[in-house]
Structures are given as structure tokens and as C-alpha cells.
Amino acid sequence: MCSYDHWSFMDSSETSDQLTIVNRSNEHKISERLIRIVPYFDRILKESKDKIIELDFDDKALKSFLNWLESNTVSIEMDYVMHLYSMMDCFEIKGYMMVHFLSFRVKDLVQQDCINYFNDNFSLKYLPVIIPQATPVSKLITSSRLNAFICRYFLKIANTNVWLDYPVETIEYMCSLVLMIHSEYQVFDAIMKWIKAKADSRKGYIERLLKLVRWCHLEDKYLPKMKEQVQSLNCQPSKLSSFRKRDCDLTCNRTKQEYFIQICNSCIQGLRIIIYDNNFYPLIEKVVNSNKSMTIDFLHVEHVSDIFFDSGEEGVRIDWKRNEYRWLDRSQYKTYFLDIHNYIQEKDFWKDNNPGPSCEYNFKFSGVLLFEADEKYMLICNSWLLECWPANAELISKYFRTNGPNKLRATILDDNIYFLANSDFIKLNINTNEETIIGLERFKNRLHFDNLLITSRKANDDRVFLIDKFTKDVFCFNVNTHQWSSMGRIVNCKNKSVVEQKESNALSKTFTFTSGTSESTNLPFFQASTNKLPTFTSTFISLNTMRTMRMAHNENSTN
After folding, report:
1. pLDDT in tens, 450-485
2. I want to staple 490 with a disulfide (CB 3.0 to 4.6 A). Which of 79, 181, 513, 528 is the partner?
3. Cα(80)–Cα(308) distance, rounded to whole angstroms?
4. Which sign does the torsion angle of CA 549, 552, 554, 557 carry?
5. What is the DSSP string of 507-543?
6. What total number of domains does the chain contain?
7. Where a domain ends, among 196, 218, 244?
């Protein structure tokens, strides 16, 4: 709870004309003279001589409001802060109020206190009380912004101890959203973690919660593991078969929200963006325009994506609905990622999760890069000595730098980081720090480190991609077979070229990219100073956003 002192209005004991406010099932006594300061109540009392006023507000918020009128102090807690903010509007407190001949913006004072309190205290532990307060038009945070946050960071939320303490209603609400996941098994696993934390009292919820797994989109390979987990709770695994037969929305596949993105530089029309599906089929091509005034609030709406590329060196925020973008200033990176960890990280998490002295020494003198894995962020030592550690707010604050040279090219796929380091291609397990040197003998004297991009999906895939930014050659590494294949070359779609397949054992599906070359007269808006592919990476885009963009794209194609 937080209290804020304002001006003292008046002592309610000065008058005996008490009236009663009945709010839902609770009664509150207050001076009529005092309550008439509020325009909403003054109007009601002018229209009626009744000494009883009936209301229907959150009672904690109303009590805080009435205490503020009587005592000059407003008390704020997270379970009613949003109701209190909205109440100031409902009570028609607009502009200035006259109290004892003092004029001041009381509405602004209290509402700013609410804003400050919410921003300073928002964290995962408060989601059970924030979710019921959030609506499409609520202040401080709308339900759409809150849902976008939950969907984007669900796997990280479910990987905290806070998740284990949520009430069943919060678990149910969150698992019903269009979560950004790679497999429905991840939802199942999150539910089972919560149930097993207090199995005796929670296993009765298993059927209720497993209905939230979208079984029609679940891969069969996970069924044996799921049956084993259900059996461990003394539940019948036959229930899983009945769940699989349920109707399912085939058009809403939560596991298909990660896309490959090509970003091309532009000097006139903005950034040219091409979005590809998992098989590199081009879905959408569009130009987004620069807007340096675009907000960079962390709690944004679902049609906004923050895309980090070039091993975390560069970042851009794209508003797909407004067709706008803003480069993320490197000086803001640390604040951005600290916000993420302060919202998601549990209090005192860092005390038991700091690296050893040797790792901290390397972090201090070499600096670190920050990468996003499926369930957490990882700090990676920015040197040829490879070490990684789960990120926390303290480590980010101490060691994360954005102004030093980047000696690494890396991407994270499942539980492994894949590095390009000098002439080696290296796999590092993020859980064990076990290092495996794969080598790049095949590409000896063909590829230059400074020209290379490396990218992948974050999970549930078996491919890592290596791209030469100058030649635009694309190579695929299969993480299961440890085999390389040449996928071809990124060519200019505007000139209707085809992809050049270089090897017979390359992927059977030929795909076409659009290059960012300035040599083509058909692409006048690309920077003439370079023929280099700016970037190619992966990012999450919500299903609703993609549907809207594809509809607009199809309409433009037919016109």
C-alpha cells in the first residue's frame, strides 16, 4: 500500500449533517457538506433530499476516495488502483475544485498518484487483481495491452514461482488467450506445473484446465509424455483421448505466430518489410514509415512488435497497424530489458541466481550480449571465451553494454546457443554450458565473419540459417543430423528472378526472397550506398495482426 499526502480540506467533525453512502453491501458515513465538494454528489443531492445515496463501485476504491476527502491522504493498493483512477472521472471531478478558497487540480493529483503507483509496482504477482480491473477502455492499462503482455511473455511467466501461487481463475484466464507459443504441449506443461505445486488440492482442476489446451494443434509425439504426467496424479490417461476429440478452432493455431522477417533499408519511403512463413514462403511485403515520436512503452498493444537483430546489436519497433516504425536507441536497450525483468522477475530472484566469480570476471571485462530464449533471457559473454547465464535485473544493470564491439554472431534454438566464432561454428547448451565445436570446414575461405547473419526460430525447429549479407547465399544447418545444405540465393523478386539452387541435396522447396539491392532501377528507395542485405531474423506477430495485414495485402493485390 502507498499513501500520498495532499492539502487538508476540512475537518468533517465541523458539521453534524452526516449522510449515508450505501455501496453494494457496505455503508459509509460522511459529512454532506464535505461530499458536496464533489460535483457528482452535489448534483445528486440537489435533485434529492434523501440522506442515503446508493452506489455500485469497487468498495476499496470508494473507501480510499472518501478517506482522501476527509483526511488529505490517499491510500493506494494494486487491487483497486485502476478502479480509483476511473472513479475520479465518474465523479465528474474536472479541472479545478474550490476548497476553503483554495483552487487546485485535485483530479490530476490523485490520478497522477495512481499512475505513479501502478508504474512503480506493476509485476507478475499482481496479475490476479489487475486482470479483473482491466477492460477495453480502462485507464492505466487496457485489457488489450495486458493480454498482449501475457501472450508475448507467457512462457517466461509460467517459468516463475509466482505462477505456482496464482489462483485457478488466473491460470484459466491466461491459458485461454492466444498465447505466443511453439507447441500446445507448453500450455499443458504450464498447467501441470501449477497443479503439481499443490497436487492434493489442485488435481481436481485437471479436467477444467486441460480443456484450455488446443488439442487439434498438438503434435502426437508429446502424447506419451503427457499420459505419464497425468498418471503421476493418479488420474486416468484415457481423459486425454476424450480431450483430443473435442471441437477445436482450426483457424486459430497459437503455435504459428513466429515468422521470419527481412528488413531492408530505405531512404525515401521508409523500411521495406517482407514477412515469411516457417517454410520461407513470402506472405506479406509492405513499407513502414518512420515515426520518431512513436511511444516505446513496454506494455504495448498486440499489433506492435519489438524486433532485435544482428545478435542483439540493433532493434526496431514496428506498428503493423499504423505502418510505422521507430529505431530503438541503443542507449535505451538497458532500460527496456530492465523493465522486462522488473515486471517478470521475482523479488530477490538474483540472490540465488548469480554466476560464479569466473563467469562474472568474464562478464565484467568482456561485456555481455542479451538473447531471448523460449522461457528466459540469457546473458552471453561477448568474447571468444563462451559463457552464458540466465539474465536477471542485477546482472543486466552491472554488465550489459551496448557501445562495445560485438565479437559474436549467435542465435538461440531450444536449449542451445549456436555461435559463429572466427572460423568455428559452436553449440553451447544454456543449461549446462557444455560446448560442442561443429566447425565450418565446408565454407573455408568462402565466408567472411563480418558479412554473416545467423538466425533461427526460438524453438520447435531443427534448422539454423547462415546468410552472407553480400552474396545473399543462404545455408541451412540441421541440428539433428549436423548436415549443411545450400538453400540458394536471395534474389530480386522485382526483376522476377528465380532462386538459384546450388546443390541437389538442398531443401526440396524452393523459396524466393526480395533483396535490398540498390543496383536495380525498380527499387529506387533503397540506399544507394550499399548492396548489403540489412537483416534477416525471426519475430512474433499476433494472429489477429497477421489476419488484418493479409486481408489488406490481398485487397491491394487484386486492385
Report:
1. 788 899 999 999 999 999 888 888 999 999 999 999
2. 513
3. 36
4. negative
5. -SS--------SS-TT-TTS-TT--S--EEEEEE--H
6. 3
7. 244
Q: Pick the residue with more confidence: 148 or 74?
A: 148
> Is residue 74 located within the same domain as residue 222?
no
Domain identity same for 78 and 18:
yes
65, three cell numbers: 476516495
* Grid cell for residue 422: 572466427
51 part of a folded domain: yes
Look at residue 502 and give its three-state secondary structure.
coil
Asked if residue 380 is part of any domain, the answer here is no
In terms of pLDDT, which residue wins out, 100 or 170?
A: 170
Which pLDDT score is estimated for 532? 62
Around Cβ 338, how many Cβ atoms within 10 Å?
17
Concatenate the DSSP letters of all residues of 61-102 into one string.
HHHHHHHHHHHSEEEE-TTTHHHHHHHHHHTT--S-EEETTE
421 and 386 in contact (C-beta within 8 Å)? yes
* Domain encompassing residue 296: 258-329+336-352+412-426+440-558
Per-residue CA distances from 25 to 21, 29, 32, 68 (Å): 10, 14, 21, 21
Question: How far apart are alpha carbons 65 and 204 in whole angstroms?
Answer: 41
Q: Which amino acid is at 95?
A: G
Specify if 361 maps to a domain: no
Q: Which long-range contacts (CB under 8 A, 24 or more apart) does 42-47 make?
A: 43/92, 45/19
- Name the phi and psi angles at 142, rounded to 5: -85, 165
Q: pLDDT tens digits for 250-266?
A: 778 999 999 999 988 76
Are residue 444 and residue 540 in the same domain, yes or no?
yes
My answer on whether 201 and 310 are in the same domain is: no
Within-domain flag for 94: yes
